[in-house]
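Q: What structure does this chain adopt?
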Amino acid sequence: VQLQASGGGLVQPGGSLRLSCAASGNIFNNLVMGWYRQAPGKQRELVADITNAGSTRYADSVKGRFTISRQGAANTVYLQMDGLKFDDTAVYYCKAEIITTDQPMGVPPTDYWGQGTQVTVSS
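A:
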């Protein structure tokens, strides 16, 4: 399984960016897809995630500004980021909790991570 993320970049405060992440490989069930971020000197933190049933959760710091969505058939997740702030600067990582086609019954899903994409908010 591979996760390919894209869409990062440099943006001014108040601006917008859209991140995309596509999962590919021997996927049987892609249970949860989400975005995490890690700023310099800080721990990686959840930004938002979405289940294959459409349930979402967001970090308090991004509620009302970021929107996560998912194209299930394509195993793709998007993060629309509006009203970006300096504190949103970080490397953003895509994560998916996946059961593969060759995974034995009853085995929990495996976490897969994308390569990270830099988001920089600067004036």
